[in-house]
Amino acid sequence: MTPGINAARKAGIHHTIHEYEHDPASESYGLEAAEKTGVEPARVFKTLVVAIDGKDLVVGIVPVTGLLSMKLIARAAGGKKAAMADKALVERATGYVLGGVSPLGQKKRLKTFIDDSALNFDTIFVSAGRRGLEIELAPRDLAGLVGGGFFPLHQE
């Protein structure tokens, strides 16, 4: 099991694991997850790590159908500017490889911001810690596990 799944189990929250055969040629890990798990794409969320004002790393969790707004996540994090974090920094801070970054069980607990559209669903899907593995859980359970809050973060 991954650290993400172990974190959910340890916390005793209700969750479901969804595993599928990942296609390395897939252009979008999130849309692939939606297709292969048979769930509407708006319920599948991607985990992105950004640098705020060139220093602090934070996590933004947004639907795979949209883009993370750098302006909105910077505002939510109390900064002026945001930019996608360097791949090596992401992998070192989270312990996960890109395309399989889970918001759960990260090496270093990063401040986490969840797009408020997650509240439109009873459960959402996020990476469980590797490509081809998703964890389904209630948005508020996710927020509780990562110490995160809900904010408008995505743009279509």
Report on this structure.
There is one protein chain. The chain has 156 residues and is α+β, with helices and mostly antiparallel strands. 26% of the residues lie in helices and 31% in strands. It contains 5 helices and 10 strands. The strands form 3 sheets. Strands 5-2-3-6-9 form a 5-stranded mixed sheet. A 3-stranded antiparallel sheet has the order 1-8-7. Strands 4-10 form a two-stranded antiparallel ribbon. Strand 7 (124-130) and strand 8 form a beta hairpin. It is globular and about 40 Å long. The relative contact order is 0.25.
Helix and strand topology:
Layout: H1 3-11, E1 15-19, H2 29-37, E2 45-52, E3 56-63, E4 67-68, H3 70-76, E5 82-84, H4 87-94, E6 111-115, E7 124-130, E8 133-137, H5 139-146, E9 149-151, E10 154-155
Parallel strand pairs: 3-6, 6-9
Antiparallel strand pairs: 1-8, 2-3, 2-5, 4-10, 7-8
